[in-house]
Amino acid sequence: MSHMVPKPWTWLKITVVLTYLFMLIPILVTVAVSFNAGTRSVFPPEGWSLRWWREALSEEWRSAILFSLKLSVTSAVLSTALALPLAFGLVRHEFPGRKALILLVLGPLLLPTLATGIGLLQVFHLTGLFASMGFAALLIGHIVICVPFSVRTISVSLGGLPPNLEAAAASLGATRWRILIDTILPLIRNGLVAGALFSFIHSFTDVNLSLFLAGPATSPITVKILGFLEFGFAPTLAALSAISLIIPLIGVAIVQRTTRLGDFVYAER
Amino acid sequence: MRSDKMDCAALELKGISKRYGSNWAIRELDLTVAPGEFVTLLGPSGCGKTTTLSVIAGFLEPDGGQITLDGEPLAGRPPFKRDIGVVFQDYALFPHMTVAENVGYGLRVRKVPAPEIDRRVGAMLELVRLEGLGGRMPLALSGGQRQRVALARALVFNPKFLLLDEPLSNLDLKLREEMRLEIVRLQRQLSVPTIFVTHDQTEALAMSDRIAVLNEGRVEQIGTPRDIYDDPANRFVAEFIGSMNLLDGTIASGVDADGLCVVKLDGGNTISARAPGNFPLGHRVCVAMRPERCGMVPMDRQVKTSASHLDAVVSHIVYLGSRQDVYLTLPDGTTVVSEVVGDIDWDIQTGQSVTFHCDPAECVVLSATTGRIANDFPTPAAKAS
């Protein structure tokens, strides 16, 4: 009967398909539920309607989505700007405490964001400024958890630069500043873009950290959804989940056109 | 321009040292390059040649010593203010710029007006025979073309000096030989003083006005290719440049009127050889003979009486087309080689006993250690001057 045994490739295909189904089914169910005509979140949907999407795009939810967008775009830009000099220092220079700094920078990636959140909350309270911080508290927290992503992608890009490029530019008469503008930035553009995108996604989808730092007037969409869950899983939430899924996907789709994100996800050349 | 300015060296290194931790990459290095001169730094890897180049370009600060370019000290001056063109081993072209943008970069950062940049880049591309390729990206070029772009980029802003860091080592043999001539042609045409770094002795011999042989961070010898080849200063240079038969022995006589002395070889024989210095009797030396200047004849044939000769046995013969290398074993087991161009006019056989011979003027006595023996034991003539 040995000729009946499927070839290894068949098994691989089956595994891949099952893995994707496992990952995608909950999302597909959620999306389907959001188009439900009934008032209960059931699958399969009881008829089709857009009422829950209308609900999800009402003023109340829209402002939360916009708040999240503002927060994650700002954190993405600032954490990437902060990560550039950091990555430079870590990749290019040997100095005492370099290893410790690497750990410190990548720390938020390894620690549960929950722990980071509690820690930041305590620090802010100690300074006595938390009440007046509002958006700034969230922004600082999000930058802390986003910086590791940008540092990683920028480091990969910097590491891939030909070794003598800067020396060549310098010998041709370029100052350090011109070398950065003319040579380094254009060549590590992909790392910057990928870092900013990963930071954006990470910030946009974060719940754990935001939970601790959000206030009534400063709640990202994720925290708002969590709060709404207390009243049960209304189909509005399904539509909102779909929206918070689509926004990062749009970001990926745009960036993927110019940058090979896979280089940074699977990476190591 | 003042005339003494014209005479002064283009580049002068005085006592340059560079240390990494406790290792000296270069130590007390002195070197002078005349205007328009092509000097090669030749040595094995780790001899300090690339460090020397980096120090001149300003990528590294030396730990000691002084560099002057056209009479001006370079200490503390950053690379972008040195006006020194550099060609790197990996070319280091900017991958995101076209060929023309690469070549014009040095002019752009000097704020040369755009029309003049275009004109000079065009002229330079023509000079390196890349006319019409200005719009290409570097990755779309062959190795030889990239090399030319790198040269054009380093020369277009009329640098005061040109540094070439093993620029040929990434090319295949044929291209390498072509680029050798090309680089020398450009250098002569633009008359830019140049230091060329290589570990390839053939390149050094073929291209240079003068060669500086480096070893362990020191200059072993500086001279024209012919000087270096014919009169190696010591055993290191003799072994590094070309192939060399080396026989150990001790000095057994003073130097005669023809500059020859007798060396008692460790194998027991004595031979007569040219002494570049006045060695004391009994001094440990080795006798160096170029294989192409050594010959052999069957035992029964007479050798010219003045020739230094030794009994030997043919151990094997390597046929190389344009020449044959005959490996011979001396009675004490030492191997020597004789390179014979063309046919050998007698029936040579492996295992045959022959007489190995060499003109005494072609046998050079070297101190067994490194260092310059001519300085340690100067001849009376050298002392007088």
Can you walk me through this structure?
The complex is a heterodimer of chains A (269) and B (385). Chain A has helices at 8-34, 51-56, 59-92, 98-110, 113-127, 130-133, 135-159, 165-171, 176-187, 189-205, 208-213, 221-228, 235-256, 262-265. Chain A is 74% helix and 0% strand. Chain A is globular, with a radius of gyration of 23 Å. The model of chain A has no long low-confidence stretch (mean pLDDT 87). Chain A is mainly α and 269 residues long. Chain B is of the alpha+beta class. Chain B folds into two domains: 3-230, 3-Layer(aba) Sandwich (Rossmann fold); 245-384, OB fold (Dihydrolipoamide Acetyltransferase, E2P) (Beta Barrel), CATH 2.40.50. Chain B is built from eleven helices and 20 strands. Chain B has a six-stranded mixed sheet, sandwiched between helices.
- Secondary structural class of chain B: alpha+beta
The chain-level structural class of chain A is mainly alpha
Task: Average the pLDDT over all residues of chain A and give the rounded result.
Answer: 87
Total strand count of chain A, please?
Answer: 0
| CATH class descriptor of chain A | Mainly Alpha
Number of strands of chain B: 20
Radius of gyration of chain B: 25 Å
Describe this structure in a few short sentences:
With 269 residues, chain A is mainly alpha-helical. Chain A is built from 14 helices and no strands.
